Amino acid sequence: MAKGVHLVRSAAMKKQKQQSLKRSKPSDVQVRESTLRGAGNGLFAVSDFARGTLLPVPYKGRQLTLAQFKQLKDFRWCFQVQEGNCWAVDGKMLKVGNPLRWVNGARSPSQLRRVNVVGIKLEDGKAWYVTTKPVTAGSEFIIDYGPGYWKAYDEHWAKPERLRLKALRAAQAKKGTAKKQEQLQEMLEDALDELDNSL
Fold this sequence. Notes:
The chain is α/β, with parallel strands linked by helices. The chain is 28% helix and 22% strand. The protein has helices spanning 66-70, 109-112, 147-172, 178-198, and strands at residues 22-23, 29-33, 41-45, 53-54, 62-65, 77-82, 85-89, 104-105, 117-121, 127-131, 142-143.
């Protein structure tokens, strides 16, 4: 498996009958600052959602076999929808136009208690998020990526990003005395060396 590749197994891998699920509209959701610390933006309910309601659009991506998935070098999410197949989504593809990219993953025990959506594959062959319990207006939609996701995230994405930001801050810091400049240059070089070693 390629470095950083991790398959996330959805709690709702089995196919659901589309007729038994309620549909929501794009106007039923809103993007704003997440309630999860450090998560950036999140996706929120504008109106009440009953249990078993589909979020307004499918999670866009392409179906891959497990062998194809293992060859991926960069990805953001993968639903395993049936044994031997998965639904892989390239996060770069979701930068515009898909509100589901703002559904954040629970990490801590308190966040896991707030999980209210799961990923499923419907008969239309697309991956969707569906509510697992009633969601009141104003609540954030939260999914459980699973512990394997966070382990892979910490190993392959979080550390390099923290180091990149540390180097950027050092490079952009106001220049003061010669000693301060020397310290900043040393911090920048250390952060860049650590970043190179982690990749």
